[in-house]
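Input:
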Amino acid sequence: QSALTQPASVSGSPGQSITISCSGTSSDVGAYKYVSWYQQHPGKAPKVMIYEVSNRPSGVSNRFSGSKSGNTASLTITGLQAEDEADYYCSSYTTSSTRVFGTGTKVTVL
Amino acid sequence: QVQLQESGPGLVKPSQPLSLTCTVSGGSINSGLYYWSWVRQPAGKGLEWIGRIYTRGSTNYNPSLKSRVTISLDTSKNQFSLKLSSVTAADTAVYYCARDEGDLLILDYWGQGTPVTVSS
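Output:
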């Protein structure tokens, strides 16, 4: 299985909105609603920010939102804050009952 | 509050097996609602899913690692384990264990990660 494709980096100024794309195939992103997004700060374990394409776990800011169209999922962060600077990974369940991660995107707050 | 903690050797010689254990506290590994997963991350690189085991013992593995990976459960100790055979330098990474919520299919609780270096 190949990693899902994400842009290597995305940046924005405080208060702005950014969107991270996650491109897969009909065997993963396009197959199910089980697309999730993880935030990882340096030296820390990942933390789930979005699950089932667009749902937020309890405690996650509503500035984070997710969507999907066909084989591509997206994560949008509105009202960008300094604490949002981190690496972000998408993940999808696959038709082979496995999980695949995206290549990762470094978000920089200018 | 569920907590996971990885343990095992930080240094493994090439061609030897890598063995790690994840101890789960704050919840039973035998609850039937969850899978138990391993994920790794080479320094400066992205996350790679290794595989998972269900409470009843069924497993799913990353196809690229399947021939070398075994994940097992020890319900008496509330632990699950990873064994990766015939390691090379490419297996050097931080290894994380995580709980995989069975209905939502998300990795909702993670260990802190343990670094493993493959070197002679």
